[in-house]
Amino acid sequence: MNDDQTKTADGWPEVEVQKLTPVKPHDGPAALKDGESAKDIVVKPIQPQIAKEMVIRGHYSHKVAPSSCLNFGVFWKGKLEGVLQYGHPIDKRKSLTLVRDTEWNGFLELNRMYMSPVLPKNTESRALAVTLRMIRKNLPHVKWVVSYADGTQAGSGTIYRASGFVLTGVRKNQTILYVPSMDECFAKLSFTHNKAFKVYERIKQETGVDVREVMGGAASVDKVIKALGAVILQGYQVRYLYFLDAAYRAKMNVPELPYNELKKLEWPPGIR
């Protein structure tokens, strides 16, 4: 990209993106022709609404992160087949303390990553590497990226480990709730962040439970959990950091853990 290219307010280059309709999920990987591999994917910025639609349709959570601000599409044979969304953590102030000397806009969170089953093997790590290089090149003030593996529903972070992320935290899940009457999972923060009213309205529509009334103005969600008959999912939340600026690795305020620590834990069935 040219140095004189117009940039947005947050420093990201303006790009022309064709409006595309996300493809429907596929039944399995496409047959590869000789020589085809994950190196043949094309990764480029896409419009937020397109990324949102694909995450809602394909990601296991079916939820978007409201703070996402960088949206990348993964194209295979001309079709949009995956998406990566970067943005800010819900609790940005707390995340900022993970690495000292970090500016307020000096880090990002990988909020969502979804890849269609049609994509070739190793697409996740390839797409991740490409987007990280793009961020390093175009947003030099961003020094590191944080991401969380959901070890209750998705996995322990195999892709992050393969991509050189640093393991910095493993915590038994106390934040992801399953609501049987809705057959849906929610993070506890869904009930307390500044857009929680949308969650309240949908829960009331589907279950009849008025979350505002149940909470009674308090920040605790324990009463809501009881009223909804929700259960805390078994498993772990796993935190990883990736350093776009290698000098910041020495500035971590949290310990670097060996990957072998994950093998000592008892994971839910199907989680690895």
Q: How much of the residues is beta strand, in percent?
A: 15-25%
Total helical elements: 7
Tally the structural domains: 2
Strand order of the largest sheet: 1-2-3-4-5-10-6
CATH architectural group of the largest domain:
3-Layer(aba) Sandwich
Quaternary assembly: single chain
Q: Provide the low-confidence segments as ranges.
A: 1-28
Count of distinct strands: 10
Task: Kindly report how far apart the N and C termini lie.
Answer: 39 Å
- Following the backbone from N to C, one meets helices and strands in this order, namely EHEEHEHEHEEEHHHEE
Main beta sheet: 7 strands, mixed
CATH superfamily caption of the largest domain? Gcn5-related N-acetyltransferase (GNAT)
Condensed summary:
The protein is α+β, with helices and mostly antiparallel strands and 272 residues long. The protein has helices spanning 48-58, 92-96, 123-138, 158-162, 196-207, 211-215, 222-228; strands at residues 42-45, 68-76, 79-87, 107-115, 144-151, 166-172, 176-179, 184-187, 231-232, 236-243.
Protein architecture, described:
This protein has 7 helices and 10 strands. It folds into 2 domains: 1-171 and 237-272, Aminopeptidase (3-Layer(aba) Sandwich); 174-232, no CATH class. The protein has helices at 48-58, 92-96, 123-138, 158-162, 196-207, 211-215, 222-228; strands at residues 42-45, 68-76, 79-87, 107-115, 144-151, 166-172, 176-179, 184-187, 231-232, 236-243. The longest helix is centred in the middle third of the chain and has 16 residues, at 123-138. It is α+β, with helices and mostly antiparallel strands. Strands 1-2-3-4-5-10-6 form a 7-stranded mixed sheet, with helices on both faces.
